[in-house]
Each structure stands twice: as C-alpha cells, then as structure tokens.
Amino acid sequence: MRKLPLFSLVLFACALLVGCKKPQETETLLIAGASTMRHYIEPVVKKFMAENPSVRVVCEGGGSSAALVALKHGAIDIATLSRPVMAAEDDEYLRDYLVARDGLAIIVNPANPINELSMGQLARIFEGEVTKWKAVGGGEGAIVLVDRSQKSNVKNSLEDLLLEGEAFRAASKTAASATEMLAIVRSTATAIGYVTLHKMGPGVKALRVNGVEMSRITMLSGRYPLARSFYLAVHTNVSPLAERFVQFTLSKRGQDLLASNGLLEVF
Amino acid sequence: MPLALTLAASDGRADIHLPVMSESIEIRGSGSVLSLAQRVAEAYMHDQPKAIVVVSSGGNRRGLKSLILGTCEMAMAATEVPPDLEKLAQDRKIELVSTEIYRDAVVAVVDPRNPIKDLSMKQLRDVFRGATTNWNELGGRDAPIVVTTHEPTSVTFEIFKKVVLGDDAVITPKALVTHHDDFEKSITEDAIGYTGFHDAGALKRLTLGGVAASVGTIASGHYPIRRTLRLYQRKPETAIGKALLGYFLAPDKGQAFVRLMGDVPVK
C-alpha cells in the first residue's frame, strides 16, 4: 500500500493554516539514491534552497535500489536513480522522470589509426589488462592511459559504465581537469583518455564505441553505449514541495545547472 | 517558473505536469521497437537540430504506465493496453491513441548444431506442452529436449502461447525460464526456445510446416506466429509527437528502416 510523505504534507497544511503570515518552520525535502546522481544534482539543490530560504534539502546517497524502497515507504520524498526502474520495482504509484543523460567520449590522438573500440576492449584497457595498441588492432607502442587525478563525476561515470564501479588501475598519466586531459591526449600520439560530451574539444579524436559514433544525437537516442539515464522518482501522491523540486529540475534553469555539471539536457 | 501545482481538493493528489517545451519528447517501452525508435529519433534530430528525442526501453508495461502517468510522451508496445492499465487511464481520464508501426514474427529457435530444420505446428505444440520429450521423436539425435520459455509477462510469451498452444494447453512446467538479455546463451545444444525474429542472433530459426518467417509470409499470414508493434500517445497529441509519428510512418524513413530489418512495414 502507498504511504504519503506525511511530514511534508503536514508542513504544507501548517503553512496553509498560517495563511498569509510567513511560516517560521523550515520545510525539509528528503532526497536519496544513486551516489553519482548526488554529485550531479548538487548545483540544482543549492539553487533551489537559495530561492526558497525556508526549505532545507537533505540529499543522501545509499543507492538507487534502497532509495526506491524508502520512497515506497514514505521515508523520503524523492529517489534519485542512475538506471531505469526495473519491472519488479515498478507499480502504478511510481512516477519516474528522466532528468538528464550523461555521455562520455573516449578520446585518442588524431594520429592514432584506431577509430573504434568495443566496450569489452575499453574495459580491458582501463583495467590494465591490455597495454599495447597492437592488441586492439592498432599500431606500435604502449597505450598511455590518461586518467583523472581525483574523483570526478566523469571518472565515476566511466568506472560505473566500463567496470561496474571498479576503480581504474592502469593510469600512466593523470590530468587534473578536462582541459588538461585534452591537452595531454592532443600532444601524446599513443594516449587514450575521456571527457564528457560538453568538454569535447578540437585536436583529439572521439572513438566509435561498439560501432556507434559518439554524438549528442546517438547519446539521446540511446544507441551510443557510454551514456546512461538519470531519473528523479516520486510517489503519485507527491508532496507539493517535492513536486516543485522536480519541476525546477526539469525547467530550463534546472537543465542548465545539470549541463554545467557535465550532463546532457533532455528538455 | 511556471508552477503547475494542482492539489485536487478531493483526494489531495498532486500531479506533476511536464514543462511545455514542444521541442522535446521521450519515448519509453518495448525493447522490440527500440532499435527502430532509435534510428527514427536520430533521423528526426538530424533534421531538427534543436529537438530532443530521448529513447529508452524497459518493456511494454513501463512504457504504457509512464505514458498514462505523464512521465513520457510516447510509448512503444508489442501489445494492446492490458486491462489494469486501461483502468488506470480511465481513472485518470487519459485517452490513448495507438498507431501500428510494423509487424514481425516470433520464431522457434535451436542451436545451429541441431540437425532439425523444420517442425509442424503440431510438433511444435507437443514439444512445448511436454508431450514430445526427445529429439529422436522428431528425426533428431537421441537427446532429451530442453524446453525454454519466457516470463509469462512478456509479449513474446503471450503471442507464442496464444498461437501455438491455444487456450487448452500450457507450456510444460519443466520449461526453463529465460531472460531477454542472456537468451542466446540459454539455448544450449539440446534446447529449443522462441524469440522475436531479430533477437535470434546466431541461433537457427526453425521453419514452421515448411514456411520460413519472411516479409512476404508474415504479411500474407502464411507464417502464423505474428505480432504487431504499436506506438501510443496521449490525446491530444503534441506537435512533436505528431511530427515524430510521421517519421515512423514515412516510407523513406521509419518504414525504410523496418524493411531494412526484414520486418513488415505498414506502409
């Protein structure tokens, strides 16, 4: 059976009772779910709180699956998901809104004869199992794998997509930013690295993955494999506050904030 | 921010309305329609650079439910709307319109090493209801037949059951239930299964009473295990919804791709 996010509804009712007087209480919005999503949604949360000073948004990780259970039991207002809802989790009370896709480009030096790698080949390169370009049909030389020096959204995403969340083990060079990543790959003939679609720059070559060209269009259509969907899920009986947050995320401004964090807008 | 807050007085239900931005649309639903929808989405975005067409699978139910709840704008389905979702739509006063996109076949498949090439409808029925248990009864090797089937919730199951077994027989309880993702692997040397025409991969498609599934035999009805793939939208259709549907039906776009896949166009 469904349960209401009672807390929020009660607060909302209180606000109505107080009438035109500004409510003193702080409204709290509880969001939990995919840890990747937590980083991506942060600018949206900050902006939402700045514009709604009486609202406190608590954003937790915990994983997509646990968040869906918590949502169904009314323990949280919004679940964030880095994957689609599965059939066994779905019911007629669950509304899951696609809010963004992430899309990653695998980049090499333009002089590299390789134009395409499969997901399996990429996984073996980033795991450190494959270290020579010849092993994946390329030219002479060792693969210079350029990794991001610190945890970043793009690094987390690629680790999730290629190695199911396992850390890369094979970096031969590190870059502190996307700009540095591009610079290293541009100047190293045998390098391979990665950036989000938004950070893609001139002087590097984006590889086709599983035969599909990397582009905004193939990421939105879902054919390009290094892209995934992020969702905000709410209960059909959503609290007005949670509804406003979802609305804000789907609005032009919310989408721009997600894009500034490297995601692909879907509205 | 355009707030579409509709807190209905009667049941306290608040619905989220997607922001009206005619240049974006999301399609969800049956994996059977996925590759066609992806190609059509790409063609549309190619011609309309500002448009966003996002495609994701998740099954018939997910697509139709999302369409009814308003979390997507177009649903892909290989089935009619199931009664419970029909009721959900009625309760929410949502009217759906469906359009046939193409037809395809469900085929019985075996391992390529299996010498059997053809089964009559009666033989196929007896294998799947468990009356025929050894390949040597069908002119094959002396080996027990490993029957595989799909989840009873799948459309492929529904159609195969209806056409091959009818109302008075059931699939043998000994049948192994396979999953779409690892279907090909689950058809071992002595196994038999059934799947959508394009999901057969490297497996051998059996002819049925001497008739192979093909564009001609599916269209004419000589090959009897057929399904119809449809797209659903809410009434009234949006401008982008109509335009996109036009792409699905255009002889030089969606229907050309349907022919390319070997399926049966509606136009």
Features:
heterodimer, A: about 270 residues, alpha/beta, D-Maltodextrin-Binding Protein, domain 2, 2 domains, 10-stranded mixed sheet, B: about 270 residues, two-stranded antiparallel ribbon, 9 helices, elongated
Count of folded domains of chain B: 2
Helical amount of chain B? 25-40%
Q: Can you tell me the residue ranges of chain B where pLDDT is under 50 for at least 5 consecutive residues?
A: 1-14
Sketch the major β-sheet of chain A: 10 strands, mixed
SSE topology string of chain A:
HEHEHEEEHEHEHEEEHEHHE
Write down the overall mean pLDDT of chain B: 88
Q: How many β strands of chain B by DSSP?
A: 14
**Helix/strand structural class of chain A:** alpha/beta
- What general form of chain B does the structure show? elongated
Name the pair of protein chains with the most residues at their interface, and give those residue counts. Answer: A-B, 38 and 43 residues
Can you walk me through this structure?
- The complex is a heterodimer of chains A (267) and B (267).
- Chain A is α/β, with parallel strands linked by helices and 267 residues long.
- Chain A is elongated, with a radius of gyration of 21 Å.
- In chain A, helix 8 packs across helix 9.
- In chain B, the strands form three sheets. In chain B, strands 3, 4, 5, 6, 8, 9, 10, 11, 13 and 14 form a ten-stranded mixed β-sheet that branches.
- Chain B has two domains: 132 residues, D-Maltodextrin-Binding Protein, domain 2; 117 residues, D-Maltodextrin-Binding Protein, domain 2, CATH 3.40.190.
- Chain B is an alpha/beta fold.
- The longest helix of chain B is centred in the first third of the chain and has 17 residues.
- Chain B starts with 5 loop residues before the first strand and ends with a strand.
- The chains are: A alpha/beta (267), B alpha/beta (267).
- Chains A and B meet through strand 4, helix 7 and helix 8 of A and helix 1, strand 4, helix 2 and helix 3 of B.
